[in-house]
Amino acid sequence: MLPFILKRLGLALLVALTVSFISFSLLFLSGDPAAALAGETASGEDVEAIRRLYGFDRPMLVQYGEWLFSAVQGDFGESYYFKLPVASLIAERLQVTMLLGVCGILFALLTAVPLGVAAAIRPNSLIDRVALFLSVAGQAMPSFWFGLILIVVFAIQLGWLPPSGAATWRHFIMPTIVLGYYAMPAIMRLTRAGMLDVLNSDFIRTARAKGAGEGRVLFKHALRNAIIPVVSLAAVQMGFMLGGSIVVESVFALHGAGFLAWESIARNDLPTVQALILVFSMFYIVFTFLADVLNAWLDPRMRSS
Amino acid sequence: MTDTLLSVKNLTLNIPTGSGTLKAVRGIDFDLKRGETLSIVGESGSGKSLTSLAVMGLLGKSIKRQADEMRFDDIDLQKANRRVMRDLRGNRIAMIFQEPMTSLNPAYTIGDQLTETLLLHRKVSKAAARARAVELLEKVGITAAESRLSQYPHQLSGGLRQRVMIALALMCEPDLLIADEPTTALDVTIQAQILRLLVDLTREMNMAMILITHDLGVVARVADKVAVMYAGELVETGPASEVFAAPSHPYTRGLLRCIPQPGKTERGAPLGTIPGIVPSLIGDVSGCVFRTRCAHARPECREAIPLRGDASHEFKCVHPDGALSEEGEVA
């Protein structure tokens, strides 16, 4: 198990390094950063002065090395717009995003997995049809529309929940449902397909021939094998939720990291965008790594490969 | 306690399909005494496996089971509820399957899977269950048994996995072992070993065994009784020695002719085959099921066929003594 973890860790680090280089290069792909900083009315001399001030005149690799060296120490430079350290800016916004992401994926897993298992036990039954309906509806509804509908019903008409903001736990209920429901259909269908497949396998018949009860057959013998692809999918979706909850954050006016990314892109605030891309990518890398480790624990065959 | 361990009378299995009811097994009778080995022989799709699964109570939900009697020891299997069946399975009736490569759960160690059976049925400590697992692994001829407990199925070969499956079936010292083509998926050299092991173990533990196979060579070596199954019916049953010495049903004779015999079968001569295919079992099935492939088919073969022979050796064929001359038959 340990060699497997170390190998995956090494791979994750390589991916992280590659991503850091790409996100740094973005600064230069989007045109002359000095000109962008100086503004449209600046003279050529001003632009040159800014170029020297920010060190844009040095070779790109040197700048990258310097940036990376600071970045691993948690220093991402200063935001052009807020004139604040990018690191503290992101740290503050990330709290909201992470809370929302964790709630969202938990909501998705806690609804999708039981529903998928129940649907697989009795295919074509009422519960299977309900699960199918819920997943089709979830895939068909855009998040912003579903969010607005929830606001209209539960915040405006019924007045049960606050429509926007992040002050209390009640503010997070609707965003959690919207974000989680977006991830739910894929997890549900994968769980159902996996369970159906595993329940027809020979080792399930062996478990029954041993005299194991249905609960034991389903959860000890079947689910552990069926859940393996679900773990990988959930990891990717978790990464997506942390990086891509821009729409949900906008609808519910939650000022999280996704919202910050959207703002910073609009303002050409490159250090912030760079740092956010790096942070979001790190989430993907970390969750994929954790999913690999969890899968290797669930399925011993993966440890050797 | 009676001498008869398992008694099945007039077992019928129907499977509803889109195009009608598939009469997979029709009116099967057999019984088995303690310590006895019954071999059910027949080609693929003849209903051998379904019959064994019916005894285990492991048929799919869609299959309809009917019987005049299904009794295991003192237990009426038709009236037994799920709880009773669960207590029987793995404990008093154990089963070995055809596919050793896929019959073990890939996610758990050999030790976990072996001890699970014992822990489900007996109040024993984990340590005691592990000790029993080691004992049985040694008994089925696995070396370094202790260290195997922490291995996973994918680390073992097919032959080893089948040995593990046998050890698994024996964990609770069952009264009846059902082996469904236990050697089909294995190399020929391993087949002989596994078979010998099964025979030795059933003798040693005084266990009854139902050995399902399509290999008559296997039957000749191990079975006390033979039941020849064709298209869902038992066409001939009897003591193995008698059935082999005087096969009475044309199908049994056909099967026997399919086995090449060293020294007897001429080099280069075509191997015996039974021409034709198994008839469809959907819809009305009456008369002799073998008549479409039988060289001796007569008009009366369309009628219901009575059982002939004496109480121990019975066959379903209209030919008066069954012992027909071989000349008229198609090889």
UniProtKB/TrEMBL annotation, chain A:
<dbReference type="Pfam" id="PF00528">
    <property type="entry name" value="BPD_transp_1"/>
</dbReference>
<protein>
    <submittedName>
        <fullName>ABC transporter permease</fullName>
    </submittedName>
</protein>
<dbReference type="Pfam" id="PF19300">
    <property type="entry name" value="BPD_transp_1_N"/>
</dbReference>
<dbReference type="InterPro" id="IPR035906">
    <property type="entry name" value="MetI-like_sf"/>
</dbReference>
<feature type="domain" description="ABC transmembrane type-1">
    <location>
        <begin position="94"/>
        <end position="291"/>
    </location>
</feature>
<keyword id="KW-0614">Plasmid</keyword>
<feature type="transmembrane region" description="Helical">
    <location>
        <begin position="275"/>
        <end position="298"/>
    </location>
</feature>
<feature type="transmembrane region" description="Helical">
    <location>
        <begin position="226"/>
        <end position="255"/>
    </location>
</feature>
<keyword id="KW-0813">Transport</keyword>
<feature type="transmembrane region" description="Helical">
    <location>
        <begin position="172"/>
        <end position="191"/>
    </location>
</feature>
<keyword id="KW-0812">Transmembrane</keyword>
<keyword id="KW-1003">Cell membrane</keyword>
<keyword id="KW-0472">Membrane</keyword>
<dbReference type="GO" id="GO:0071916">
    <property type="term" value="F:dipeptide transmembrane transporter activity"/>
</dbReference>
<comment type="similarity">
    <text>Belongs to the binding-protein-dependent transport system permease family.</text>
</comment>
<dbReference type="InterPro" id="IPR000515">
    <property type="entry name" value="MetI-like"/>
</dbReference>
<keyword id="KW-1133">Transmembrane helix</keyword>
<feature type="transmembrane region" description="Helical">
    <location>
        <begin position="98"/>
        <end position="121"/>
    </location>
</feature>
<dbReference type="InterPro" id="IPR045621">
    <property type="entry name" value="BPD_transp_1_N"/>
</dbReference>
<feature type="transmembrane region" description="Helical">
    <location>
        <begin position="133"/>
        <end position="160"/>
    </location>
</feature>
<dbReference type="GO" id="GO:0005886">
    <property type="term" value="C:plasma membrane"/>
</dbReference>
From TrEMBL, chain B:
<dbReference type="InterPro" id="IPR003439">
    <property type="entry name" value="ABC_transporter-like_ATP-bd"/>
</dbReference>
<protein>
    <submittedName>
        <fullName>Peptide/nickel transport system ATP-binding protein</fullName>
    </submittedName>
</protein>
<dbReference type="InterPro" id="IPR027417">
    <property type="entry name" value="P-loop_NTPase"/>
</dbReference>
<keyword id="KW-1003">Cell membrane</keyword>
<dbReference type="Pfam" id="PF00005">
    <property type="entry name" value="ABC_tran"/>
</dbReference>
<dbReference type="GO" id="GO:0015833">
    <property type="term" value="P:peptide transport"/>
</dbReference>
<keyword id="KW-0547">Nucleotide-binding</keyword>
<dbReference type="GO" id="GO:0016887">
    <property type="term" value="F:ATP hydrolysis activity"/>
</dbReference>
<dbReference type="InterPro" id="IPR013563">
    <property type="entry name" value="Oligopep_ABC_C"/>
</dbReference>
<dbReference type="InterPro" id="IPR050388">
    <property type="entry name" value="ABC_Ni/Peptide_Import"/>
</dbReference>
<feature type="domain" description="ABC transporter">
    <location>
        <begin position="6"/>
        <end position="256"/>
    </location>
</feature>
<dbReference type="GO" id="GO:0055085">
    <property type="term" value="P:transmembrane transport"/>
</dbReference>
<dbReference type="InterPro" id="IPR003593">
    <property type="entry name" value="AAA+_ATPase"/>
</dbReference>
<keyword id="KW-0472">Membrane</keyword>
<keyword id="KW-0813">Transport</keyword>
<dbReference type="GO" id="GO:0005886">
    <property type="term" value="C:plasma membrane"/>
</dbReference>
<dbReference type="Pfam" id="PF08352">
    <property type="entry name" value="oligo_HPY"/>
</dbReference>
<dbReference type="GO" id="GO:0005524">
    <property type="term" value="F:ATP binding"/>
</dbReference>
<keyword id="KW-0067">ATP-binding</keyword>
<comment type="similarity">
    <text>Belongs to the ABC transporter superfamily.</text>
</comment>
